[in-house]
Amino acid sequence: MAELETQGELPGRGSNAEPARPQAPRSRRQGAIGDDVSSGEKSRPGDAIADAGSRNHAELDVVEVCSRLIRFDTTNRGNGDSEGEREAAEYVASLLSGLGIDSKIIESAPRRANVIARVPGTDPSLPALLVQGHLDVVPADAADWSVDPFSGEIRDGFLWGRGAVDMKDFCAMVLAALSTGVRPRRDIVLAFVADEEDKGEYGAHWLAAAHRDLFDGCAAAISESGAYTYHVPAADGRIVRLYPVATAERGTAHLRLTAKGRAGHGSRPNDENAVTRLVTALGKIAAHRWPVQLTPTVQAFLERTGEALGVPVDLSDVDGTIARLGPAGALVVPTVRNSTTPTMLDAGYKVNVIPTSAEAQVDVRVLPDAEPELLAEIDAMLGEGVTREFVAHQPPVQAPVDSPWFDAMADALRSEDPEAVVVPYCMGGGTDAKAFSPLGIDCYGFAPLLLPEGFPYRAMAHGVDERVPVEGLRFGTRVLRHFLENC
Asked: What secondary structure does DSSP assign to 187-209, as a single string?
């Protein structure tokens, strides 16, 4: 049954703080299930999922479930401004209830809903697996789309809509896989969370801080993004199907730079001009060429991909190796170096007035074990009168490449695609893994999808006309079933 909780206090906020208030629900929200989604039964160790197939529970159609999830408008505009995940969470809880799986809906603020469940495995001595996905999506302007972005329309073999690949597809595949009667060896903790598309303050980061006990015993986790088909040419002309599984993420160290100076008239010389100081520092940071730093994940990617494609790998010339890998090399271009990208500027109020201060923000992504050196280098480039502070600061994520978890993921992919070449890779951005990794959980990007050759998958997330292949969803469901049963 689903237990409902509402908890409004966020990490780092006093109990008197008023949580952000989401805007009123839009008319396209549909399918609210209501508060009573109890199945009336308790899970029994080892039987919770397997029983689903023997108590007249029909297997869920992954395409239908994903389409329904898309039709819930869970737009997250950031800074607490969100449609909320409540109706989508109730729908997920109702599906779990239909499978005889107890769940709990926990709200961190009004309508910011998270669904948590724990499915017992047959061997309680094994550490648990966390399966986590987010229910919120980024905004979509319908005027730019070929279809209504919240229609969940099926057209030309694809399911269209915001969240189709980020990441309501994964949520639907997990639910569909659970409905097939899979009997897991180990406990599976399910977390369908809010707010990943902003800071996670209402979702994963809040849960990890306020409800850490929910994840007790979890040794590994799977979520976005990885295990999708990447068609790449080999040296002999063959097309090889790579399946990159994320075993690492760069860290986030977004900075606000503040330059202080002396105000004055724009027509007069001023060697303490805050704007000049700021743009000088930004110019140095933007032009800086960060050195190559090979992490275990990236090195393994280069070596294993090079072997599969018949391409020589020279770790003393990483840029040359990446070039020889061709399209496959694009997967690691963002992750062989740190990056510092100026993205925001704020200075002045009148063209003939030199302001006292000027501000900028810099998107900083940092590789594992590289942050102290990177920050020292940035400090050397700031110059007189310019200071820095963190706007967002989350550490890198790094999980073992050579592990039984990775092997089980590779086996699951090859159970459906015997020619799959499964390789580790490092994500250039970030996910909710940054909330769970500090709990001692090895986090992997494993959201399997079979993609047709030429499909622009990497342009789908947050893009216009986001869509996912229908057959890719069914493939991913079968792969996840294999993994959940055998890991």
From this structure: -EEEEEES-TTTTSTTTHHHHHH
